[in-house]
Write a structure and sequence with these properties.
Structural class: mainly alpha
Number of helices: 4
Order of helices and strands: HHHH
Shape: elongated
Helix content: 55-70%
Largest sheet: none
Oligomer: single chain
């Protein structure tokens, strides 16, 4: 009889441990999915803010939106994205007397590559990944 009780206790204990582990892993996946959604929302906000700082279309409110989007990324993005963002910010800052458009494009491509990598949608070949921004062409004080 004691062997039957021991078997039942072991079975019940194993089932309990399995249920706890399954619950913990499910909660972790849910938290990871929520964090990924949050990062995606911040990344979309950042990319949207780029339109407000494009040459010929930049506005003071666009620069403020860009600064806010960058600051939000400091909260949620991994270090690789933050480093790429800081390199891009350094190059495009208004106080940089020797801004280089080609370098800006390279740094922006690297930043967006890191964001995509963080989201799990990056291309396999980072060396050939190149982004270009599209401007409306309508002057800020437009028609």
């Amino acid at each position: 009889m004691s062997a039957d009780i021991a078997t039942a206790l072991i079975t019940a204990g194993g089932a309990t441990v399995l249920a706890v582990v399954t619950y913990a892993l499910t909660k972790k996946r849910e938290r990871d999915a929520d964090l990924r959604k949050e990062r995606l929302a911040h990344y979309k906000g950042f990319v949207g803010s780029l339109s407000g700082i494009l040459e010929g279309e930049a506005t003071p409110s666009g620069h403020r939106a860009f600064a806010k989007a960058c600051n939000n990324l400091n909260l949620i993005a991994p270090q690789s994205v933050i480093r790429a963002m800081q390199a891009y910010q350094h190059e495009i800052r208004l106080s940089n007397p020797s801004r280089d458009i080609e370098l800006q494009e390279q740094l922006l491509s690297r930043l967006l590559y890191e964001m995509r990598k963080d989201l799990g949608v990056s291309p396999k070949d980072s060396a050939n990944f190149k982004i270009g921004l599209w401007a409306s062409g309508i002057p800020v004080n437009g028609p």
